[in-house]
Write a structure and sequence with these properties.
Length: 171
């Protein structure tokens, strides 16, 4: 029976588990999505939700509590100033787990773990296509010059025969 057992050990000791949780949380804040195993994502998801709840309030006390876990003021500011305001109306469930495929080596289920309310990237302005065709043909650019391309090349070997060699039987 599993009564009163909490958390996931993930076959690690407590220091390794704590480091894994911190690194996954840091990566999610920095990149907004990451690929990991299902077990790791489920283990960290609840802890990350608690960080998001603290980030939503944004008080000095909560910032310090978040910084105790994240250890990077830049990421704490990003979480509190950029990501938490996107989830103001959401009480919980700040992340989603999307199942992908299995690992080849150990058949562990891979998932994409991402924020539900992703920041929207500003679309780049598209240039309107010109209706007139240019009469000039554009030539491809030559490859960039490197140190290896400036070295003198060795002469190519001279073939010893003019064609393929055929063996004939003599009568």
């Amino acid at each position: 029976m599993r009564h009163r057992l909490q958390g996931h050990k993930l076959n690690r000791n407590s220091a390794q588990r704590r480091a894994l949780f911190k690194n996954l949380a840091r990566s999610l804040i920095e990149h907004q999505r990451l690929t990991t195993t299902l077990a790791k994502a489920k283990a960290v998801q609840g802890k990350f939700d608690r960080l998001m709840v603290q980030a939503k309030s944004g008080t000095l006390k909560d910032r310090r509590l978040i910084e105790a876990v994240i250890n990077d003021r830049r990421l704490v500011n990003r979480l509190v100033m950029d990501l938490a305001p996107l989830s103001r109306q959401r009480a919980s469930g700040f992340t989603r787990i999307i199942r992908l495929n299995r690992n080849r080596g150990d058949a562990a289920l891979k998932v994409r773990w991402e924020l539900v309310d992703l920041p929207q990237a500003e679309p780049e302005p598209t240039k309107a296509k010109a209706k007139t065709r240019s009469k000039l043909k554009i030539k491809p650019m030559p490859p960039p010059t490197t140190k290896e391309s400036l070295k003198p090349k060795a002469p190519s070997p001279v073939p010893t025969s003019a064609g393929p060699v055929t063996l004939r039987k003599t009568p």
